[in-house]
Write a structure and sequence with these properties.
The complex is a heterodimer of chains A (433) and B (258). In chain A, 36% of the residues lie in helices and 21% in strands. Chain A has 433 residues and is α/β, with parallel strands linked by helices. Chain B is built from eight helices and 13 strands. Chain B starts with 6 loop residues before the first strand and ends in a 5-residue tail after the last helix. Classes of the chains: A alpha/beta (433), B alpha/beta (258). Strand 12 of chain A pairs antiparallel with strand 12 (197-200) of chain B, so a sheet runs across the interface. Bound molecules: flavin-adenine dinucleotide (FAD).
Chain lengths: 433, 258
């Protein structure tokens, strides 16, 4: 204990201080550099030497980079032990210990991740939660989840229903689960995205089942009043806030400055579900293969895009067909006459919203990048490792486009063949049975 | 397609998006179109509201010999009177739009009907492929032009999406000659709706990109820097097979290849 306090004690070295003050002393430079950053004045106050701040720029003028100074000083002040921890930015915790009430947010989770719409609604849920004490925001999600940042999106509690029965088109099973949650927790609000991804459908089912009149297309909500769009978005309806709300995009700002617990919340086994399982009136037969080239570029989910680095166009079209991707192109490919104008992606073409954008031989000019700003995953195939598209990409492959496209086509064809085999085998089995 | 099923198509008064005038509603028109292709003139087209409304003639002009109208004030709640009609008349398939173009536009009516009748509801239908042995195969319109095949047992309610075939043109003469069978409605007032304050839609504020930076230099950087993803994986040395496999794995993981 006494050792520790000795270490903590400020030890002054009068000789060093004297040398540091005397610019003509032969040891002046070494002493200054030895105790850089932390210098104490006679009273123990921290002193900053303005001459030491900054650096000399290329043309001999002194430059001060404030942003860097802040970070380095911060690290030094934190001391040696904590300097490593201080680097990872840690947001303050928002903790709800024993929730007295719940707000349920039922997310779309397109592709297994929270959409921007979902995050906005989580933000709104926290606005509503502040109006009462100890209300926890609960995220309800179905099916497979790839989301890793529930804590940063504002999820206090998480109900994740991952069972097989909730996958695909399963409104009956999902509704049964929501009913169970309703009886178990009786939440203050049910918030849904008013979206085409299933949010509006599920919300309407729940509202009809519970006999509540929901607010649809709501965009301004507080604890007492709600503003909704109506009559095909031509009027605003102001009404009292109901328990079930379907919210438009950008109804509130997403959470970005707090960290949340995202603790799992258990729900009781679904009795109603098992009962209804046998007599399900709707049977999901799975997704249908659609002609990818008929899907409008702006809506397409998966785009294979060609630029100036494509030399074998037949191969490119074959690859797109094999992968089932919608074709896109950079302006150069369009201007050179290899692709039609309506396939152009970018500032003067189409702004795309694909979940996966596979750019082959595209350098990533800013006019092109603007068009793919909303894409989730970008994959680049390019010979130039330094180009902007590679910097933007989540997966970049430095190779000749010909070779990689040929391999990809092969893989896709093999995959389809194996899938057909298994499905035909299954067909035989079910025929035999 | 067996003509011995009863298909009812519910129609409402639409609203032209620019002029705001009454018109044939887009999705309801598609629902009538779908019904006509399924069962032809045996289709029942049903409206709850004012039978004098000239827009109804636009529906009739699609080739309907007659139209059924449940006469009540157009501000009244349509659910109860439609329920009564559907319970009384044998029905296999009810077609509606997803959302009305007037009033609350909540899209709740088909759900309320389905809940009360205990029928299944298939949302956003693009096509009814076949009806056989008390079951129907329908295609649902998903976002991004995707389709899902669903089997549903009769009787059911389907809401028709904009992806369904477009409504045929309406002919004025046949429309004016169509017969209206008018039945008495309920005139149950929608009290909650009366209490709401309705005003022309305010334009919504655009979301601004707010940069939460401590220093001016950080804000400058945020305003000028190109949005760079960073942290992406770069493959250089591997063979083309390995590279292609890595891309293919990512596509599989994202489920864009099925
Ligand atoms: C007003 C204006 C509007 C514009 N609007 C658009 C727009 O909307 N959309 C748009 O796309 N562009 C637009 N542009 C053009 C844009 O600036 C670029 O010129 C264009 O995007 C470049 O296309 P690119 O990447 O295909 O070609 P390049 O820049 O020539 O890039 C070709 C890339 O392919 C790579 N490559 C070459 N050979 C191979 C190979 N064998 N295998 C793999 N990779 C290879 C190269 O390394 C390079 O990175 C606009 C320009 C202006 C001035």
């Amino acid at each position: 204990m006494s050792d520790f306090s000795l270490e903590e004690m400020l030890r002054r070295d009068p000789r060093n201080e004297w040398i540091a003050r005397n610019r003509l002393h032969p040891l002046h430079d070494t002493v200054l550099s030895a105790e850089q950053g932390e210098r104490r004045g006679p009273s123990g106050l921290l002193r900053k030497d303005p001459h030491l701040v900054g650096f000399i720029g290329p043309n001999g003028i002194k430059r001060i980079d404030r942003a860097d100074v802040f970070s380095s000083v911060g690290a030094e002040l934190a001391g040696k032990k904590r300097s490593t921890e201080a680097k990872a930015v840690s947001l303050p915790w928002h903790i709800v210990e024993n929730p007295a009430g719940y707000i349920m947010v039922v997310a779309d989770m397109v592709g297994g991740r929270l959409t921007r719409h979902d995050k906005d609604i989580l933000g709104l849920a926290h606005q509503l939660a502040t109006e009462k004490a100890a209300v926890a925001v609960v995220l309800v999600c179905f099916g497979e989840s790839k989301e890793t940042q529930f804590d940063l999106a504002g999820v206090d509690r998480l109900i994740h229903l991952a069972g097989q029965e909730f996958n695909g088109f399963a409104p009956e099973a999902r509704l049964a689960a929501l009913e169970q949650i309703e009886t178990q927790f009786y939440p203050d609000y049910w918030l849904f995205p008013d979206s085409v991804n299933g949010g509006a459908d599920l919300a309407s089912r729940l509202a009809a089942r519970l006999g509540e009149r929901p607010a649809t297309q709501a965009w301004q909500v507080n604890g007492t009043q709600t503003l909704c769009r109506g009559a095909s978005s031509s009027v605003d309806i102001r009404r009292a806030t109901p328990r079930i709300l379907m919210l438009l995009e950008e109804c509130a700002d997403a959470i970005d400055s707090t960290r949340h617990q995202a603790l799992p919340l258990q729900i009781k086994p679904l009795a109603a579900l098992k009962k209804s399982n046998g007599s399900s009136k709707m049977l999901d037969r799975g997704m249908i293969d659609v002609d990818a080239s008929a899907v409008p570029l702006a809506e397409a989910e998966f785009i294979l895009s060609a630029g100036n680095g494509i030399h074998n166009w037949n191969q490119f079209h074959a690859a797109a067909a094999a992968l089932g991707a919608t074709e896109g192109a950079s302006r150069v490919a369009v201007d050179d006459g290899f692709m039609p104008r309506e396939r152009q992606v970018g500032a003067s073409g189409t702004w795309v919203t694909a979940r996966v954008y596979l750019a082959v031989g595209i350098s990533g000019a800013i006019q092109h990048m603007q068009g793919i700003g909303q894409c989730d995953k970008v994959v680049a195939i390019n010979t130039d490792a330094g180009c902007d598209m590679v910097k933007r990409a989540d997966l970049a492959v430095i190779a000749d486009s010909d070779a990689v496209l040929a391999e990809l086509t092969k893989l896709a064809n093999a995959f389809m063949a194996s899938k057909q085999q298994t499905s035909s085998k299954q067909g035989e089995k079910s025929d035999a049975a | 397609m067996p003509p011995n099923i009863n298909v009812v198509s519910l129609v409402s008064i639409g609203r032209h998006p620019q002029s705001g005038r009454a018109r044939r509603a887009e999705q309801d028109g598609r629902a009538v179109e779908l019904g006509l292709t399924m069962v032809g003139e045996a289709l029942t087209v049903l409206h709850a509201g004012n039978p004098q409304n000239p827009v109804l003639r636009q529906y009739a002009g699609m080739g309907l010999p007659s139209l059924t109208v449940l006469d009540q004030a157009s501000s009244c709640d349509a659910v109860s009177v439609l329920l009564r009609y559907l319970r009384k008349n044998p029905t296999d398939i009810v077609l509606t739009g997803v959302r009305a173009e007037r009033g609350e536009s909540s899209g709740m009516l088909p759900y309320l009907l389905a809940e009360q009748l205990g029928w299944p509801l298939v949302p956003k239908v693009a096509e009814i492929v076949s009806v056989q042995d008390g079951k129907a195969d329908v295609l649902l319109a998903l976002p991004r032009g995707q389709r899902r095949s669903v089997q549903v047992s009769l009787p059911f309610i389907a809401t028709i999406d904009n992806a369904a075939p477009e409504a045929r043109q309406s002919a004025f003469g046949p429309g004016s000659r169509a017969l209206f069978s008018i039945q008495k409605g309920d005139n149950l007032a929608d009290d909650a709706f009366m209490e709401w304050k309705i005003s022309p839609a305010k334009p919504r504020p655009k979301r601004l990109k707010v940069v939460k930076a401590k220093t001016a230099a950080d804000r400058m950087k945020a305003a000028t820097a190109k949005p760079v993803g960073g942290g992406g994986k770069i493959m250089k040395q591997e063979s083309p097979e390995e590279k292609a496999q890595a891309i293919f794995d990512l596509l599989l993981e994202e489920k864009v290849i099925r």
